[in-house]
């Protein structure tokens, strides 16, 4: 039966209202065109009894399949008319115990609370803070659980996009984001006690590690946790066994890498990749000390020292200086130009690497000549020439002495 609220009030006893509501099947339905006021508790349903003990209950529904239906009969298109229902428990055998709000017009349940839900499963404070598992939320959404409280983001594929599930969670070990769909990989983790501003993204997109003032695209300020021998940045490729670009820097001008020992004024170095790779003891690109061009030319503004430490060598045997000199005499020496220097008109003098390798068998292969090998061949030839010169001088001295004695 539907009870309408109008401006007229009528006081009825509980017993009279029970009669009006048709507590007995033999009673016909009754319609009131006035307000009905019950100054006491009310029980409705087939299982209500005359000895009902209400306690603090003001209104009680008592039978199986309990429902309260809000049937909006608005007929005008300009008024909302959706129907709603309060539902207690499934109606079928073996169903679920729950309390729910049903969108009766759409035929679905947008809100449901299962029986046995923990205390304060969902709690809203007067200031709007929402607690999950707590009656004292201290922020807008406060989640409390005994083990790894988490938030799941589940794209279920219902809109045509591939399903994907992520968890955002935290526990005593770390705060993490878990890719549930792909083997529950933890691709982002932060340990408890991580330093302030361990990772900071500024409004212009600059990223700071250990600083909230990144004055570069990427700035790292290492804390005291980095020990001797440990790297501020350590990149390891565990997925590939072949060559891999581990660091790539690109710019529409020269790409520069600056290194500065702040305890010394003479310990600044910059690598600049422009026309070639320059090693510069300052931030002035033109003041380079060494340049390696993209054609392989190496220019240094200082001495070149190659390792020749006896302790770094093995299989040491003496050479025959006279044999070396003979090979030097037979070695073709030409004037020539590297192909990449044709436009510059640069000329060089020296042997071909193939001829040098065939004569002396030194170096990595027959396409290059180590400057150390060239120096060694020259020294051995000089020694042989020196010995020849000494022998000739001795013969000359003997002839001069013989001439003087006559």
Strand order of the largest sheet: 19-20-21-22-23
Number of strands: 25
Q: What is the helix/strand order? A: EHEEEEEEEEEEEEEEEEEEEEEEHEEHH
Oligomer description: single chain
Rg over CA atoms, rounded to whole Å, is 47 Å
Overall shape: it is rod-shaped
Number of helices: 4
Strand content: 25-35%
- The overall average pLDDT, rounded, is 90
Structural class: alpha+beta
Weakly predicted, low-confidence segments: 1-25
Helix content: 10-25%
Largest beta-sheet characterization: 5 strands, antiparallel
Q: First CA to last CA: what distance?
A: 161 Å
Indicate the topology.
Blueprint: E1 11-12, H1 14-20, E2 37-38, E3 42-44, E4 59-61, E5 66-70, E6 84-88, E7 98-103, E8 108-114, E9 123-124, E10 130-132, E11 141-143, E12 150-155, E13 164-170, E14 175-179, E15 185-190, E16 200-201, E17 207-209, E18 218-220, E19 255-260, E20 268-273, E21 276-280, E22 290-293, E23 298-300, H2 321-330, E24 334-336, E25 348-350, H3 353-360, H4 371-405
Parallel strand pairs: 1-2, 3-4, 10-11, 17-18
Antiparallel strand pairs: 5-6, 6-7, 7-8, 9-10, 12-13, 13-14, 14-15, 16-17, 19-20, 20-21, 21-22, 22-23, 24-25
Condensed summary:
The chain is built from 4 helices and 25 strands. The protein is an alpha+beta fold.
Description:
This protein is α+β, with helices and mostly antiparallel strands. Among the domains are: 11-115, no CATH class; 255-300, no CATH class; 310-405, no CATH class. It has 4 helices and 25 strands. It has a 5-stranded antiparallel sheet with strand order 19-20-21-22-23, with no helix packed on it. Strands 5-6-7-8 form a 4-stranded antiparallel sheet, with no helix packed on it. The longest helix is centred in the last third of the chain and has 35 residues, at 371-405.
């Amino acid at each position: 039966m539907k009870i309408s609220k109008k401006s007229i009030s009528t006081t009825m006893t509980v017993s009279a209202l029970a009669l009006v509501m048709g507590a007995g099947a033999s009673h016909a339905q009754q319609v009131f065109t006035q307000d009905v006021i019950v100054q006491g508790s009310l029980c409705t349903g087939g299982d209500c009894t005359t000895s009902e003990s209400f306690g603090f209950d003001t209104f009680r529904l008592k039978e199986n399949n309990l429902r309260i239906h809000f049937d909006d009969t608005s007929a005008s298109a300009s008024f909302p008319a959706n129907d709603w229902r309060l539902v207690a428990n499934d109606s079928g055998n073996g169903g679920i115990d729950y309390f729910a709000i049903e969108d009766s017009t759409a035929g679905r349940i947008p809100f449901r609370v299962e029986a046995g839900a923990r205390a304060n499963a969902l709690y809203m404070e007067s200031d709007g803070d929402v607690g999950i598992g707590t009656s004292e939320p201290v922020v807008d959404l406060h989640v409390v659980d005994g083990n790894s409280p988490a938030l799941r983001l589940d794209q279920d594929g219902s809109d045509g996009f591939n399903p994907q599930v992520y968890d955002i969670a935290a526990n005593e070990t770390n705060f993490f984001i878990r890719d549930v769909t792909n083997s529950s990989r933890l691709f982002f983790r932060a340990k408890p006690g991580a330093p302030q501003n361990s990772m900071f993204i500024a409004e212009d997109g600059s990223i700071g590690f250990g600083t909230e003032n990144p004055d570069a695209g990427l700035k790292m300020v290492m804390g005291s946790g980095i020990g001797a021998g440990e790297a501020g940045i350590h990149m390891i490729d565990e997925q590939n066994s072949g060559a891999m670009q581990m660091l790539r820097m690109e710019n529409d001008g020269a790409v520069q890498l600056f290194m500065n020992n702040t305890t010394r004024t003479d310990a600044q170095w910059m690598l600049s990749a422009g026309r070639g790779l320059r090693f510069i003891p300052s931030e002035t690109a033109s003041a380079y000390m060494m340049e390696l061009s993209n054609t392989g030319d190496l220019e240094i503004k200082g001495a070149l020292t190659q390792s020749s430490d006896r302790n770094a060598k093995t299989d040491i045997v003496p050479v025959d200086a006279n044999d070396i000199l003979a090979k030097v005499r037979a070695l073709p020496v030409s004037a020539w130009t590297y192909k990449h220097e044709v436009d510059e008109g640069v000329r060089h003098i020296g042997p071909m690497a193939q001829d040098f390798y065939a004569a002396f068998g030194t170096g990595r292969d027959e396409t290059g000549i180590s400057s150390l090998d060239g120096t060694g061949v020259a020294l051995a030839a000089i020694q042989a020439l020196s010995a020849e010169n000494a022998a000739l001088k001795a013969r000359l001295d003997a002839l001069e002495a013989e001439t003087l004695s006559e």
